[in-house]
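STRUCTURE REQUEST FORM
Protein name: DUF4377 domain-containing protein
Source organism: Pedobacter zeae
Requested output: structure tokens
Priority: standard
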Amino acid sequence: MKNLFILLIAFVFVSCKKSERYGPLNLKNGQEVELLVSPRYASDNDPLLKLPDQVDAGASLWGFDQREPGYTYRIKARFNRDEVPLQDGPEYYFVFEKIISKAQYKGTEPFTVQLITNYAVGGPAIRLNKTGTDYYMIPDKLQLTYANSTVQGQLEEIWLNVQEIRANWQKGQRPKWKGIKATVVQDPQKFGKAYLVQQLQFID
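Status: completed
Returned output:
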């Protein structure tokens, strides 16, 4: 009888753990959901929405390496809540499982991306690289082309500062600006691979 009672308590405990819900949407650990991923990859306005009601998903998405800028995706993902989160990591997040649908975004309105990111460990970093004559916000993933020679010169100025920082990293050198905001559109010549930079704003 005593053993039966212990088993019953254990069953109730496990059942309660399985039914616990987390995050702003009260999701269960391991619950599968459908999400809507925006075409504005890495932008200031890059919402992740839970379907079908299209509300803010309230957590980040991990593992969606196939994502391309300029495309809207419906995907299936699994909600994950860590019992012991990684240091400086989120308690819960979504893990990508599969693409349900993919559609090219037809809009042409500009949006903004930040070229300086502040990391909890390591401080601010400039998100710009250069291969040959091409500038990249994310190497081999997201190129930054330029609308005119003024923007080209500004990108080169930023790149020179990146090189200075890398050469003097042991001295703790930081970017010469507090922020860099780029106004961009999808580059029609390299759709899904590049943003066309129309303007750069430097914040001192």
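Reviewer notes: Residues 4-16 have pLDDT under 50 and may be disordered. The two ends are 73 Å apart (CA to CA).
Form closed.
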